Amino acid sequence: MTTVSPAPSELDLTPYQDPTEIQRVLHQARTIAVVGLSKNDLRASHFVGYYLQRHGYRMIPVNPRETEILGQKSYASLADIPEPVDVVNVFRAPAALPGIVDETIAIGAKALWCQFGVINVEAARTATDAGVSVIMDRCIKVEHARFIGRMHWLGFNTQRITAVRGGIQ
What we know:
By secondary structure, the chain is an alpha/beta fold. It has one domain (16-151): NAD(P)-binding Rossmann-like Domain (Rossmann fold), CATH 3.40.50. Helix content is 30%, strand content 15%. The protein is built from five helices and seven strands; from the N terminus they run αβαββββαβαβα. The protein has helices spanning 19-28, 44-54, 97-107, 121-129, 140-148; strands at 31-35, 58-62, 68-69, 72-73, 87-90, 111-114, 133-136. Strands 2-1-5-6-7 form a five-stranded parallel sheet, sandwiched between helices. The longest helix is centred in the N-terminal third of the chain and has 11 residues, at 44-54.
């Protein structure tokens, strides 16, 4: 018998989207490994990695197909990273999440952040059972902007309609 997973819209993801936990993870993190970071600057993962660097995080690319992304050495897997990682940010298909969770637990990362659409509740339960905080179906860049006050960084949420960077006087 084959079991069919519920559609993401049918899942209750609220335990993995708690605003207080999101803020705690963002404030305590210093080093973030981005699994699935692309060298293509038109990909969302590339922009998120760039954003994290611009906002003071140590960003470590994890992509076995690349040797360097955004000026940083790219590692083939989380296990290859030679320094402690606070957060593992995932830009991979949901089916890849169980293996990523196992690596996240093995390296001792404190949090697992699954980007929009990266939803695997069973893998999330495995991570939380091991003491890893899980944020799921949220963008780390958007949440950082929302909670740390950077929503204005590309003109968003400035409450002004103008192309003039300084605003209308």
